Amino acid sequence: MNTIAIIGGGASGMMAAIFAARKGAKVLLLEQNDRLGKKILVTGNGRCNYTNTYQDAFCYRSEQPDFITRVLDQFPAEKVITFFRELGIYPKDRNGYLYPFSDQASAIRDVLEQEVYRLGVDVRTGISCTGIQKTKERFSLQTSHGSLTVDQVILCNGSKAAPSTGSDGSGYALARQLGHQIIPVLPALCALHCTGKHFRAIAGVRAQGKVSLFVDGELTAADTGELQLTAYGISGIPVFQISRYASKALYEQKEVIAMLDFLPEYSVDEVKILLKERANRQPEKTAEQFFTGLFHEKLAAVWLKFTKIKKEKLCSDFTDADIQRLAWMIKEFKSPVIKTNSYEQAQICCGGVDTTQINPETMESRLVPGLYFAGELVDVDAICGGYNLTWAWASGYVAGQSAASA
Question: Keyword set for this entry (predicted)?
């Protein structure tokens, strides 16, 4: 019986182990942490949004988008839901975002771990893999506990994001040792750092709005939702969703501008009308009081400073130029982006093992027979909402099944 070594006991690694073992393979699962699935515990703010009923190609990103579809089609969200239900996880549906009914991320980790052990997988924790070689028909692994020889290998080491959970990027080095190309690995699903001292003045403000990302003057990505303004820049789910494009552009030394729109449902002309009507209804109020009840006072103060409108100025004295400048502040509040948050604060990474060198039907290397990949190590990332875990489940399933069937 062939032995399959799975390096990395996270979401995709446990998934690969389960489906390889269910096929009757002898499975060895190596994990450098003291327990499996540590990163799962911090997903979904500790509740684990493990998949989403809404699935669209837009939700996933890669240099080769078609690759993702061919993998996900083999284990779509419906199968994810059924798989976890069979393990005892009943879904709590929040507008398509699925969580375990207990709202505990540990439940997802625990049922996977229980299934791994039930199937007789040889789990070895506290052991890291430092080297890999292909010798004739087998693989030689150099680990922190000595050498191992196995028939097949599935690399599920994860990325560099959230290193406190054990993600150290070691899988990229192993892939390179066997000739694989790595698309630059960069932080994603993270906050953005912007220039401007005014951010300290608006730190802590949350507002509904739209963030648009311009790279070298061209609109590259946009998203709408609750924006969070920080002392260093911008955060919140909409910012996370577009952050991978900022990471790539900054890596390529391109100019990156973030534009915030605090009334995306209105055109500029409609905002001007709204502001004029507001000023006419409250002529005795000052500019400092003008936005009370509409926008946060910290935002209003910054806008007045940028437009050079004195806070003591009465609304009755507002000129058309004042209204126009304020309208543009609301609709196009621009700031240069200088960097992203680090790997420590990023939820995931973009980039990874080049998918052109992987067969999407099997997740097997096109360069090295018997070598497979799964999870975040591969050049696939996704937006918030359970999509990155959906990729982990699907790619782990395909890799495990395929390796065991080879």
Answer: FAD, Flavoprotein
pLDDT-derived band at 328, boundaries 50, 70, 90: very high
Q: In the chain, what are the domains?
A: 3-182+352-405 (3.50.50.60), 191-340 (1.10.8.50)
Q: What is the mean pLDDT of residues 141-146?
A: 96
Contact 336, 257 (CB under 8 A): yes
pTM attached to this predicted model: 0.95
Tally DSSP H helices, then E strands, for the chain.
12, 23
Of the candidates 348, 42, 340, 50, which has an alpha carbon nearest to the alpha carbon of residue 165? 42
CA distance 378 to 352: 5
23-77 pLDDT, tens digit each: 999 999 999 999 999 999 999 999 999 999 999 999 999 999 999 999 999 999 9
Helix (H, G, I), strand (E, B) or coil at 209: strand
Residue 4 in tokens: 């399959």
Rg (CA), the chain: 25
Q: Read out DSSP for 301-370?
A: HHHHHHHT--TT-BGGG--HHHHHHHHHHHH-EEEEEEEE--TTT-SEEEEEE-GGGEETTTTEESSSTT
Confidence grade of residue 1 (pLDDT, cut at 50, 70, 90): confident
State the Cα–Cα distance between residues 120 and 167, nearest whole angstrom. 25
CA dihedral 281→283→287→292, nearest 10 degrees, is -30
